[in-house]
Write a sequence for this structure.
């Protein structure tokens, strides 16, 4: 009894933190879906328009992909059964890595169990406490965590500012054993695209390694959705391209692509590869089928961009601030966190539109937003429905005139 009381007292700070989040409008409720991902989903028994999924191409519920996953489970079982370096490397993993490398126009690729693990496994394998990492100030949390795990010195440069990056490189010339420049390809909260050609040029000029996290570029940019390196024709010059299978590709897992030497090295150094079981066979088969679909037909990619342009033009015409997005990521920036939560609730309760709020610490204080994500499975009627809901709710809350 006494020990229980001590534990309860020691965790009082958790209650206090939750109360503080609720009081400040930063305690975001988590909705539970009762259907597969799609344009419309069921939540709490209600049919709602889904406007906040990363399922860009609608592949998460694609019949061919589901069939491929089921067949792989029948053939290979549910799980890999071991870490890849011992007994968990199945032939389907090798097929997937070869297919990813071809798709990305890279020499080789290594598959991880998730995108976060790809970053937190690869970065510490490339740099250590004697090295420098030049990191974009708006990089994803998984990059930040990977740099922290590496113990390398982090030198942050301003968002999209190549003059600042070059200044940081010059200031720190000769200070580290190795240097790594790392950036998101598409920034997940604002939807803008990193100036990757300039980043690669600076890396080559200053003898640094170049690394891009293309989680939100996969299936969105480049020929047939090959991503940002293909978009800028840099597949032969970037050192490390990282990506995920959990967004546009519709399954689960992550990867890095680069030279054969890089992959051989990571297979002996990256801790998620060495100390966590391999990707499940069903997930691997789903990704293989998704890449096949993307390569044979780019109609889903075209539909995604048609919906994006239509939705974003409509929102801007209504008077909403979408920031500087250049991709389907559509941030409706409201600013005030309580009003952002209120608008999300109103959209859901009154208009049956599922549009999650994004508040601090995911975005800086004062930039709270509702991030919309159009997809290839949305119809024009769906886009009109969303625009009507935003017009009504925005006027009701005084966000637009």
């Amino acid at each position: 009894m006494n020990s229980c009381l001590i534990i309860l007292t020691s965790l009082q700070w958790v209650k206090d933190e939750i109360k503080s989040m609720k009081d400040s409008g930063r305690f975001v409720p988590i909705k539970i879906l009762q259907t597969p991902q799609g344009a419309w989903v069921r939540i709490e028994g209600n049919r709602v328009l889904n406007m906040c999924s990363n399922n860009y191409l609608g592949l998460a519920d694609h019949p061919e992909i589901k069939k491929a996953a089921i067949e792989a489970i029948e053939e290979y079982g549910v799980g890999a059964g071991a870490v890849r370096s011992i007994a968990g490397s199945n032939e389907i993993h090798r097929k997937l890595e070869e297919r990813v490398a071809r798709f990305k126009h890279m020499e080789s690729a290594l598959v991880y169990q998730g995108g976060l693990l790809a970053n937190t496994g690869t970065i510490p394998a490339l740099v250590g406490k004697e090295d420098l990492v030049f990191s974009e100030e708006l990089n994803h949390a998984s990059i930040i965590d990977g740099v922290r795990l590496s113990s390398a010195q982090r030198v942050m440069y301003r968002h999209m500012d190549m003059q600042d990056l070059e200044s940081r490189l010059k200031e720190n010339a000769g200070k580290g054993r190795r240097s790594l420049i790392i950036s998101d390809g598409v920034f997940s909260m604002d939807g803008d695209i990193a100036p990757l050609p300039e980043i690669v040029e600076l890396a080559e000029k200053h003898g640094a390694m170049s690394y891009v996290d293309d989680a939100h570029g996969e299936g969105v940019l480049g020929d047939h959705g090959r991503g940002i390196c293909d978009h800028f024709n840099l597949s032969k010059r970037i050192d490390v391209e990282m990506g995920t299978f959990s967004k546009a590709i519709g399954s689960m897992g992550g990867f890095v692509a680069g030279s054969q030497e890089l992959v051989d090295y990571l297979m002996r150094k990256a801790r998620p590869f060495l100390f966590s079981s391999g990707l499940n066979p069903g997930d691997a088969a789903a990704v293989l089928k998704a890449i096949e679909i993307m390569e044979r037909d780019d109609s889903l990619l075209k539909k995604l961009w048609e919906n994006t342009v239509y939705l974003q033009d409509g929102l801007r015409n209504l008077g909403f601030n979408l920031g500087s997005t250049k991709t389907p990521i559509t941030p409706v920036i409201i600013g005030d966190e309580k009003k952002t939560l209120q608008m999300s609730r109103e959209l859901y309760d009154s208009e049956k539109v599922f549009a999650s709020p994004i508040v601090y610490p995911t975005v800086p204080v004062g930039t709270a937003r509702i991030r919309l994500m159009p997809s290839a499975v949305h119809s024009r009627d769906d886009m009109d429905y969303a625009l009507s809901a935003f017009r009504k709710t925005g006027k009701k809350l005084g966000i637009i005139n």
User: Anything to note?
Assistant: The radius of gyration is 22 Å.
